[in-house]
Amino acid sequence: MTMLPDLTKTTLALLDATDPLASKRDAFFLPDNTLYLDGNSLGAMPRVAALRAHQVLNEQWSRDLIKSWNSHQWIDLPHKVGEKIAPLLGAAPGQVICCDSTSVNLFKILSCAMLMQPGRTKILSQAGNFPTDLYMVQGLASLLGEQYCQLVLVDDSPDNHALEQAITTEIAVLLLTQVDFRSGRLLDIQRLTQRAHEQGVLVIWDLAHSAGALPIELDACHVDFAVGCGYKYLNGGPGAPAFLYAATRHHDRLTQPLTGWMGHNAPFSFATDYQKAPGIAQFLTGTPAIIAMSVLDAALTVFDNIDMQQVRYKSLALSHCFHHLVTMQPCLADLQLITPLQPSARGSQLAYQHPHAYALCQALIQRGVIADFRAPNILRLGFTPLYLRYVDIGTAVTILANIVSSQEYLKPEYAVQQKVT
Amino acid sequence: MTMLPDLTKTTLALLDATDPLASKRDAFFLPDNTLYLDGNSLGAMPRVAALRAHQVLNEQWSRDLIKSWNSHQWIDLPHKVGEKIAPLLGAAPGQVICCDSTSVNLFKILSCAMLMQPGRTKILSQAGNFPTDLYMVQGLASLLGEQYCQLVLVDDSPDNHALEQAITTEIAVLLLTQVDFRSGRLLDIQRLTQRAHEQGVLVIWDLAHSAGALPIELDACHVDFAVGCGYKYLNGGPGAPAFLYAATRHHDRLTQPLTGWMGHNAPFSFATDYQKAPGIAQFLTGTPAIIAMSVLDAALTVFDNIDMQQVRYKSLALSHCFHHLVTMQPCLADLQLITPLQPSARGSQLAYQHPHAYALCQALIQRGVIADFRAPNILRLGFTPLYLRYVDIGTAVTILANIVSSQEYLKPEYAVQQKVT
């Protein structure tokens, strides 16, 4: 990416004027006087999502009641939503389904993968991986016993190649998150998957912080399994259902343990014995969350006719502008970027360490710039190309610089950590 | 219950006029020209549910975005909804939480219970239990291995006491559904739990077909664990989040395997090691489904100031009237009731076997009487005291008699089984 010579307001406005994604902003409801840099935590609301919720309650559930399972195709939603997400993941049809939470889906996949690797007991991940991923491994290990399942963690960094060295024939499963939730570092799916396969290791990618933010090529990279989140860059609403990817080549030999009735080959035969459904449907468990899944289904239409390369370009450009403007402000010298700067190594967020990161974040929020704090000292800023403008970036950095230079963030009300998410 | 001497329209209207729950009907949206006898499958929509969905999308998510986790107490919803459900189950505070699906919650509880019973490997249930319950046991067994976990099924009936005889010291866990989804038979929680405890067996009750339909006394019956559904008699909407009950006395020694970040003692410390939250919060897994859970939260307000004994009385009276009217119609003699008639042995539904049950159900639906078919030959009718009137019962039976006497149900369009739920 070329360094922009002069990021004046005029330049930023010009970037907006030539932005091929600019019109997508209208698809979202965005509150007044708010610059939202936290779409990596909870995506903003597509207007169509509210319309769809209204329909599902006031036209479907209320009027057509139980008949809606057929007449409004509720029963098809897990597949329909899965197939809408699939192109964002580089997945051919029949491999993605929408259901449950990321954590629950990860448990299904982890269990499957371990059963496919008799004689291997180790699940390898990064020490800094999102905790729920590590906790789900620990939960599986508590159930199976440590002799059958152990979590192995490495402190990987862009410099030490610790991860690659740890991928050996001793490992059963490699569980990684493509974009690190703290640092925003982006891992190379293609390279790490290939390395894993060379050692007979199955891979599970958590795409929570990347799906909808950048192009992903699961099929082309021969990924085995993936999970991800519906409420971040996919804008499906708070606690939206999650998704799960399993490569077709594995479908016939999978045994996932959360064998609820919706994953049965013939759920409405009410047979006593479980017989798994063919294909990706085997990953369904309980009755699908229709209201929530409908909202996600509608939200995904904002990705219609979108080129993910354009999304990626704008994401990198927005964050590049942000950091460039930060470096131009002497008062922001204490903000230490922990996100790798090169485009191939970062996702769609920037993370800065600062001794007063919590207070800074609170002061920003008070001024309408919604950023995020991650313990112990990280100010996290997410860049969502579908609804952020270049001029917003300029305004956000100006406000940040103002808060720092005025020492506004030292106000006592910003000192206590009360934020829970 | 006294047999009503003469169930004329006038008598039924009089019963409505003196019904203490009559005013609750206004709390629901009910479509015109529809008699809804399927609230045991999907509850009707409380009007307040639609209002709440509108609020959560158009005032909370859209406007306050990520801040809503605190400002709208999203983070408290699993507990708040759990505590609203608790009184309907006879559960003191701190023992019920709302999360995930019934199936997923059952897996958590089954795993916990098995770990509490070293040396015992058998999970006892009824052959006719709702399939997802049996499938989840089979899923756990597939993961643990048959030597550690086996499902044992008995063909219990009100006459043979097979269940009680099968509860021995060989059994680890007794898994039963209080009201049978097909027959509507009601099991005696108190007696079976006591019998189980005498043999050192832990009990799990599935309350899917009873919670919100009849008074339940989990604490008084010393039940160990329970799960249940949010979208039947609790009217939480299609695929609403489910609930889970765990008696306080067990909390400290439980290890449930779906250890997601929300069940961590300090989720926002983002620690590498899982440390379970105290109390019922240890059963949380992923990020709560806020939109769906908010709808359920609102729907539960229809139970405010309701006496569950009155609900039970009306439920029995509605079904009693229905069956009495059926027996008065000679043309309905082929409908064979498989639900026990005595009040202590039935829930809030009636089930009739009929060789043309599917066609009858379709013809009823065509005429606006929404009933339910369960393979192979069961016509199922649910009685929801909060929004059904006595006069509705009269109308429904009249329509049913008309369909049978006219042989309308033999029309070709009712012959093919297309209904999926």
From TrEMBL, chains A, B:
Pathway: Cofactor biosynthesis; NAD(+) biosynthesis; quinolinate from L-kynurenine: step 2/3; Amino-acid degradation; L-kynurenine degradation; L-alanine and anthranilate from L-kynurenine: step 1/1
Domain of life, source organism: Bacteria
Keyword Hydrolase: yes
Residue positions where N6-(pyridoxal phosphate)lysine is found in the record: K232
Top EC group: hydrolase
Binding residues annotated for pyridoxal 5'-phosphate, in chain numbering: T102, S103, F130, P131, T132, D133, T177, D206, H209, Y231, W261, T287
Protein keywords: Hydrolase, Pyridine nucleotide biosynthesis, Pyridoxal phosphate
Family membership: Belongs to the kynureninase family.
Subunit structure: Homodimer.
NCBIfam families assigned: kynureninase
Protein name per its UniProtKB record: Kynureninase
Gene responsible for this protein: kynU
